[in-house]
Specification:
This protein is an alpha/beta fold. The protein has two domains: 3-50 and 292-419, Lyase, Ornithine Decarboxylase, Chain A, domain 1, CATH 2.40.37.10; 69-286, TIM Barrel, CATH 3.20.20. Helix content is 30%, strand content 25%. The chain is built from 13 helices and 21 strands. The protein has helices at 3-14, 35-42, 51-68, 84-92, 102-110, 127-136, 146-155, 191-202, 224-233, 261-275, 288-291, 324-328, 415-419, and strands at residues 22-24, 27-30, 33-34, 46-50, 72-77, 96-99, 118-120, 140-143, 160-167, 189-190, 207-213, 241-243, 281-284, 295-306, 311-315, 335-336, 344-349, 358-365, 373-377, 398-402, 405-410. Helix 9 (224-233) links the parallel strand 11 and strand 12. The longest helix has 18 residues, at 51-68. The chain starts with a helix and ends in a 5-residue tail after the last helix.
């Protein structure tokens, strides 16, 4: 391979890494820091997030949305990467926060988020979680069912703003586990039930009905289902607030075609102008499409094995730090961090005792060897969220890099942590 073609290959690989990543002497740098230095200091597996890339993405969402619809708010779907430092960053960038449980709410408030800009979700909210939200002054609670109304009317003593989550009966083109708007979804109220909930809330002494919420799923790569969801809720009446949910997908591989933020917003706003009141406040809830591309995961190669029909590279992580593959069949890409480029095809697998512990079915790696670092891009969403202790694995650290500077925002779990709640 010529030098020019090798450089083109590296540049193409860099498209999947956080903006600003680079290659020097065949070595990967993220946020101005060499991957090798990060692994030496923090060990592997480790999740790395480029702070500049994440802030730029948040600003792009915020500015592009407000430019198209001034009375608007971007509400970050925090389940995608719920760590206090990330909540603080999103708050600093002027985003609201979407939480789906007491733990996420606690971290958001600890990070200094304005409770009035917090939106609380959940299809099975407990009295305890609702009381936490009420006591904290959370601005919006999303009604998912009639039991939510019963609980809130019993617990609220002043006034609480709510939205009704409407089930639009739209089967979004995504994995079944991440689809939420279809007819049999556990989330939201079908239109007829939503109408009943709206009528009841309009007569409530303590619950202030601000508007409607709709969400159809995650990792959606087409704008049309989003616009159909708006069309589905518009006939329910005119309201002050419409939360249009999130769900825009991220680009995990070169083969995937993902709408840009601008294309996504253009589609939403065009339909909103046709169907919704011009003076309404619009909310959106990006999660995956906001944080995924700002992150990557570093692994250490433990084994290289050549089989009869395929060859394996086994690393020191896997489904303990990335369940996206096993749960959703999500495709990823990778490169050797110190020899960025393509080579022989391998199956990249983890260290856990499951045949399903596979990170990438087929990936072209350049001369992988035991001890090498493997960098997997686009792991900023849901990987750390769903990290676990399978086989006694220790959950990885979260390291933020920015302009050559490094800080740990979640330390690596220790064996003492692992057994702290394990009573003999």
């Amino acid at each position: 391979m010529t030098t020019t073609s090798h450089q083109r290959e590296q540049a193409r690989l860099l498209e999947l890494f956080p903006p600003g990543s680079s290659v020097e002497h065949d070595e990967l740098l993220i946020g101005g820091v060499r991957a090798r230095d990060l692994a030496d200091e923090f060990g592997t597996p480790a999740m790395i997030v480029d702070e500049n890339a994440l802030r730029a993405r948040a600003r792009r969402y915020r500015d592009d949305f407000s430019e198209r619809w001034p009375n608007s708010l971007v509400v970050w779907a925090s389940k995608s990467l719920p760590r206090t430092a990330i909540y603080r960053l999103m708050n600093e960038e002027g985003l609201g926060i979407d939480v789906a449980g007491g733990g996420e709410m606690m971290m958001a408030l600890r990070a200094g988020a304005d409770p009035q800009r917090v939106v609380m979700h959940g299809n099975a909210k407990s009295d305890h979680e609702l009381t936490m939200a009420i006591d904290a002054g959370v601005g919006t609670i999303v009604i998912d069912n009639f039991d939510d109304i019963d609980r809130l009317e019993r617990l609220v003593h002043d006034e609480q703003g709510v939205l009704v989550r409407v089930l639009p009966e739209i089967a979004a083109p995504t994995h079944a586990a991440t689809a939420t708007g279809h007819i049999d979804s556990k989330f939201g109220l079908p239109v007829a039930d939503a109408q009943r909930a709206i009528a009841r809330l309009r007569n409530s002494d303590t619950l202030r009905l601000d508007g409607l919420h709709v969400h159809i799923g995650s990792q959606i790569l087409d704008t049309r289902p989003f616009t159909r969801a708006i069309e589905a809720i518009a006939p329910l009446g005119e309201f002050a607030v419409y939360d249009l949910g999130g769900g825009l997908g991220a680009r995990y591989t070169f083969d995937s075609r993902v709408p840009t933020i601008e294309e996504y917003l253009d589609a939403l706003i065009a339909t909103a102008r046709e169907c919704l009141p011009s003076n309404a406040r619009l909310l959106i809830e990006p999660g995956r499409s906001l944080v995924a591309e700002a992150g990557m995961t570093l692994y250490r190669v433990l084994t290289v094995k050549h089989g009869a029909h395929r060859s394996f590279v086994a690393v020191d992580g896997g489904m303990g730090d990335n369940l996206e593959v096993s749960l959703y069949g999500q495709a990823f890409d990778a490169t050797v961090a110190t020899r960025v480029g393509r080579g022989e095809n391998f199956t990249l697998v983890g260290r856990h005792c499951e045949s399903g512990d596979q990170l990438i079915e087929t990936v072209a790696l350049r001369e992988p060897r035991v001890g090498d670092l493997i960098a997997v891009p686009v792991t900023g969403a849901y990987c750390l969220t769903m990290s676990n202790n399978y086989n006694g694995a220790l959950r990885p650290p979260l390291v933020m890099v920015r302009d050559g500077h490094v800080r740990v925002v979640q330390r690596r779990e220790t064996y003492d942590d692992l057994i702290a709640r394990d009573l003999p």
